[in-house]
Amino acid sequence: MSRIDEFLNGVRTVAIAGHVNPDGDCVGSCMATYLYLRDNFPEIEADVYLEHFKPEFRFIEGIGNVKSRLLDKDYDLLILLDISSKDRIGVAGSLTEKTGKILCFDHHVTNREQYTWLINDPQASSASEVVYRYMDPDKISEKCAEAIYMGIVHDTGVFQYSCTSPETMRIAAGLMEKGVPFNRIIDKTFYQKTSLQNQLLARTLMESIQLFGGKLIIGYLKNRDISFYGAVSTDMDGIVSQLRNTAGVEVAVFMYEKEPGVFKVSLRSSEKVDVSAIAQKFGGGGHVRAAGCVMQGSVYDVINNLTLYLERDLV
Ligand code: AMP
Ligand code: MN
Ligand code: MN
């Protein structure tokens, strides 16, 4: 098996970037890569680019150095993690045009981009698991292990989703042996909600609708509700999973209006439906059981457009 080392010949400066609205796996895999380079390749100068993330991720070592604006700087290598497609990179997106070498670690079935090196395993639980495989376990510090562990926990829903494999559990066990505070990471970054998050969740559940004999559940928050609560995108994390937990549901959809007439749509499937195929019809992507896209129109336009495709799988 190859190691990250093999991509670092002659490299002095590295930019590390994840996707817009960075989730636990995105932040975990980016920070783990940063910490691995910092600990083992001190001669390399690395910058991490990430947009706004949950304050609960602040315990990760080195996260205070993360850049949310692009520095006027050239890099020898760009490392991308968990991004799925180039148009989701956000602030560091323009680096794909001007950086000579790009290394991408991913686990999105819909990633079909061209890079110098694309290491994409759609069977892997998380980008954190993929990048872990390219690290020497003996060179992973406890702080780096915490970042990888957090990434795996978030993308597996605490080892619950079908993307969890025996290999995922073996990796998690190894990280646990390094002393990661696993219970604190799971509790504080995954399960714990602010009261605002709980209110948004409660309101969405109260107003959710079920179609196709209960096999499809749809929840939504409109722009005016989000403004009323003063909520930001990370406050809506996890709502779609709770919708999916409803008995009898095959597909859960959660959408929020990020600007008038523009919805961020999250799709989750229990067993049968390939939601990445549906998200791709609307210019998005993701995984078979978890995917997303952006759609235009009213709540009812979005529902009508989605049900056109979902009907085939659910009736
Ligand atoms: P989300 O519903 O935003 O949590 O996304 C679920 C999964 O789909 C994640 O793995 C995302 O990275 C992926 N995803 C979400 N939106 C998009 C998009 N517009 N294009 C490609 N992948 C996406
Ligand atoms: Mn992600
Ligand atoms: Mn991921």
Automatic annotation (TrEMBL):
Top-rank taxon, per record: Bacteria
Annotated DDH domain ranges read: 14-152
**What would you give as a GO molecular function for this chain, any one?**
nucleic acid binding
Q: Which residues form the DHHA1 domain?
A: 231-296
InterPro entries documented for this protein: DDH_dom, DHH_sf, DHHA1_dom, Oligoribo/pAp-PDE_c-di-AMP_PDE
The record ties this protein, via SUPFAM superfamilies, to:
DHH phosphoesterases (SSF64182)
Q: What is this protein called?
A: Exopolyphosphatase-like enzyme
